[in-house]
């Protein structure tokens, strides 16, 4: 008798929060279900453009600005059927709150800023958030900043705790122009780009005949 089901182990996409100073892992947020689609858009950074000299037309000034969008589902139905105590008490609010707190300063920081303002502190430094890493397989470990966030709660228990929701996330990839080369996030970005270069090198180039031409003259 074997327990083999024939189904491959399915890895999860998700977000890891790390301390920007020590690189210590603070929290791992695995997506309950992998999204069916992932949208990535890139804006080229180059010097070519109207009014520039012809010698600048093909020059790149840095990595493109890359944005990622996805929609994730969170469903507590299975946990409720298994009589999970936490889900029965508060629904999926812990999962939602863990994601939401990525874009909130801590209450302690807000209180400290308020106290400093009361005693006349002129300059109050904004709080530095955790470094968020969007992970979508081993080749895509990407430092990101959350730029868009929306939650659609779709079902509730008798106490109006959400038990099913869709979360839409928009993220901007932070590259070495944003973080520098001596930063943990900058190092991870460079690994991400170098992985792209390695994958591109695996591509087998076609022939001009496939395009219906014999030569470019």
Describe the protein's architecture and organization.
The chain has 217 residues and is of the alpha+beta class. The chain has a single domain (27-47, 57-192), classed as Elongation Factor Tu (Ef-tu), domain 3. 25% of the residues lie in helices and 28% in strands. It has 6 helices and 7 strands; from the N terminus they run ββββααααβββαα. A 7-stranded antiparallel sheet has the order 2-1-5-6-7-4-3. A hairpin with a 6-residue loop joins strand 1 (14-18) and strand 2 (25-30). The longest helix is centred in the last third of the chain and has 19 residues, at 184-202. The termini are far apart.
Radius of gyration from the alpha-carbon trace, in angstroms: 23 Å
C-alpha termini separation: 67 Å
Biggest sheet: strands side by side, in what order?
Answer: 2-1-5-6-7-4-3
Number of helices: 6
Structure in a nutshell:
The protein is an alpha+beta fold and about 220 residues long. The chain has 6 helices and 7 strands.
Which tags fit this structure?
Elongation Factor Tu (Ef-tu), domain 3, alpha+beta, 6 helices
